[in-house]
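Build the 3D complex.
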Amino acid sequence: MAKIFCVANQKGGVGKTTTTVNLAAGLAKVGQRVLVVDLDPQGNATMGSGIDKRALELSVYDVLLESASVKEAKQTSEKVGYDVLGANRELAGAEVELVDLERRERRLKGALAAANDDYDFVLIDCPPSLSMLTLNGLCCAHGVVVPMQCEYFALEGLSDLVNTIKQVHANLNADLQIIGLLRVMFDPRITLQNQVSDQLKTHFGDKVFDTVIPRNVRLAEAPSYGLPGVVFDPSSKGAQAFIEFAREMVRRVGSM
Ligand code: ADP
Ligand code: MG
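Done.
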């Protein structure tokens, strides 16, 4: 039985894709079978896993429109150690095409159910919006991982996401919960970041993951090589933090 997690935050540039691909690579390193689902038409998780989004014959778009199964549309990326259900610009059209269809927010859920036994973890990289695509992700997930930078407006943006998750929980998916807030791009020398980090712990308690991902240039360089930082430079501080985070996720899932 795969455990399914959305990596979501409606802000762009907060580290969703970096978290998705590095957590996936970290989980693969500790022996888990992982599928990454790229739900962002930008296709960054696809490219960052070593798969050329322009060359995809089948993608998550075909899966959402039920013209392909996950098994047919997924790519296996040997270099990174996990499978990818890729995305490219075509996916932007799905938003509109899904509107008139039945079970429009449950398309991904149905498709992933058929691949349940093939994976231990499914990680869904969400677009920076609370759109129909994100809703498809939230409808099939057991939990949401929320990457966030410890900056002044971080908490403000969080309340919209928390409300959406509450609504999905109430109306569409009773399994859904925030599994945790992940502090990313953290710089301990910045006083404000430490203050926001303390606030997060006060408000959200053990919903804040113990692992903190530091700001680390190797994580930012890795995508241009089509690799997660965990594979590109496993000894870097950023990679080590994500491997530790993978272990923390395995422990949390064990107690879910
Ligand atoms: P999102 O998917 O939320 O839009 P990304 O994961 O693409 O965000 O991250 C935004 C930018 O920040 C990218 O250029 C990425 O390489 C960089 N980045 C993400 N996490 C880190 C980190 N821990 N240290 C340094 N750079 C990072
Ligand atoms: Mg992204």
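The chain has a mean pLDDT of 95.
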